Automatic annotation (TrEMBL):
Keywords: NAD, Oxidoreductase. The keyword Oxidoreductase applies. This is Polyol:NADP oxidoreductase. It comes from Bombella favorum. PROSITE patterns: MANNITOL_DHGENASE.
């Protein structure tokens, strides 16, 4: 177990907080104390706390579930007084280990609702942040509005002063805050979600409007929701991984954490009640967050999807293993260099060629053990989001379409559900109907071209282009992925 007393005698290879952890007070309440939060927002806050006059920006974590692993996490964080170790590993294997001291408390919302609500309403709380996953904002994809029909939301609406959801807790906390005259604050999404601030505003104001229209108007006018782009690979940590991390560090940490050495956070400077001095610890402030999101989606996410499709067909489990195949590496590099970068406007001050090199280095980091199957899940939806602009730019611009056509063939072969040895692939395609899954599984190389994966550029699918896709599928089956790659 790791405690404050251990900070006095840490191993030589482990850095400790360079500030007095006992003097840190809470100014941020964070919902969803998962690995990404602990390696991203908490990472930046830990560095801010080392600066003068920043001690009031500590974090109180809030868990929204109780029982099982949630209870264990709460017990372990409390036992360690919020301390945990972060091991950052670069692609070359070099590691840096640090004990983080920014987490001041951990509350279980279902067990301590009044403590959570009081904290949200407290004048000292300036920021409410969250990592609740991309799907946690409860936005209807068809209407674009907050869904009030879910049972948990309905329960909160029936008794808003005794909430159970994050929307219920935050809005009731803000109601109490307004009543106490403490003014607005900032609600800050740290989820990997495009326009995450705008989505957050829609969710929380939407819920508030269903409770009290006047309160919703007050939130709209007094609470800010900055958009942000976040990036860092932070894998899950098994019990076996924990033992290895502690062996490496020499600590007895109940909650050790692993991440890559790369980190990025680009955010709008829209904070209603002040903010930490994030600009002094590497956070990028800009009013053009969407440009950074755009580059990430078209370069990182799009190439991730190519790697995952190739990996599933090759029966490889990890992203670094897939990229370790020279022909795959060359192909992904060529797609980025020849198809994406020439048709993408760079964010201010960003060299897209250097960004490409950084991405490929990150993907090759074996220590992250990034699962191919995780990235390949819901490939149909991901293709429409990650590939559409590149595909349309290549096809409409009359550019060489060799690589883009192969990517489409590769995706359809993935959706077929068999690797290149003919073995079944465990697909996760939650938005395809049973009939569509049957079409995807067909051995006919032309039939599944009609699946929704290509809907965003279907108007450009000429008969000739469809034949090219089908031909590439035949090549993949006949020669295998590595031999058929157009490199």
């Amino acid at each position: 177990m790791l405690t404050y007393d251990d900070l006095k005698s840490l191993p030589e290879t482990v850095a400790g907080p360079s500030y007095d952890v006992r003097k840190v007070t809470s100014g941020i309440v964070h919902f969803g104390v998962g690995n990404f939060f602990r390696a991203h927002l908490a990472y930046y806050v830990d560095r801010v706390l080392a600066l003068p006059d920043q001690h009031h920006w500590g974090i109180t974590g809030v868990g929204l579930r109780s029982g099982g692993n949630s209870d264990r996490k709460a017990e372990e964080f409390r036992a360690q007084e919020g301390l945990y170790s972060l091991t950052e590993i670069a692609a070359d294997g070099k590691a840096e280990i640090r004990v983080m001291g920014c987490l001041k408390d951990y509350l279980q919302a279902p067990d301590e609702p009044e403590k959570v609500l009081a904290l949200l309403a407290d004048k000292a709380t300036k920021i409410i942040s969250m990592t609740i996953t991309e799907g946690g904002y409860n936005i209807d994809e068809t209407t674009g509005e907050f869904r009030t029909s879910l049972p948990a939301v309905q329960a909160d609406l029936a008794d808003p002063k005794n909430p159970g959801t994050i929307f219920g807790f935050v809005v009731e906390g803000l109601r109490r805050r307004r009543e106490a005259g403490h003014g607005g604050l900032t609600i800050m999404s740290c989820d990997n979600l495009r326009h995450n601030g705008d989505v957050s505003r829609k969710a929380f104001v939407g819920y508030a409007r269903a409770v009290d229209a006047d309160l919703a108007d007050w939130i709209d006018q007094n609470v800010t929701f900055p958009n942000a782009m976040v990036d860092r690979i932070t894998p899950s940590v098994s019990d076996e991984d924990k033992a290895k991390l502690n062996e490496r560090s020499g600590l007895k940490d109940l909650q050790p954490l692993l991440s890559e050495d790369f980190i990025q956070w680009v955010i709008e400077d829209k904070f209603a009640a002040g903010r930490p001095a994030f600009e002094k610890v590497g956070v990028e402030f800009t009013d053009q967050v969407s440009a950074y999101e755009h580059a990430k989606i078209r370069m990182l996410n799009s190439s991730h999807l190519i790697l995952s499709a190739a990996g599933m067909l090759l029966n490889l489990k990890l992203v670094d293993e897939v990229l370790g195949e020279p022909r795959v590496h060359k192909f992904v590099d060529s797609v980025l260099e020849k198809d994406v970068i020439p048709t993408l406007k760079a964010p201010p001050g960003v060299d897209l060629h250097k960004y490409k090199s950084t991405l490929l280095t990150r993907f090759s980091n074996a220590a992250m053990a990034d699962q191919v199957a995780r990235i390949a899940s819901d490939a149909t939806s991901k293709a429409q989001v990650f590939w559409t602009e590149t595909v349309r730019a290549v096809l409409e611009g009359g550019r060489d379409r060799t690589r883009i056509v192969y990517c489409m063939a590769l995706l359809l072969e993935l959706l077929r559900g068999k690797n290149e040895k003919g073995e079944k692939i465990a697909l996760q395609e939650p938005f395809l109907s049973e009939e569509q899954l049957k079409i995807a599984a067909s051995d006919d190389v032309s039939e599944s071209i009609n699946l929704p994966a290509f809907d965003s550029w279907r108007d450009l699918l000429t008969p000739e282009l469809k034949k090219e896709i089908a031909h590439n599928r035949e090549l993949i089956r006949k020669e295998g992925v590595l031999s058929s790659l157009p490199v």
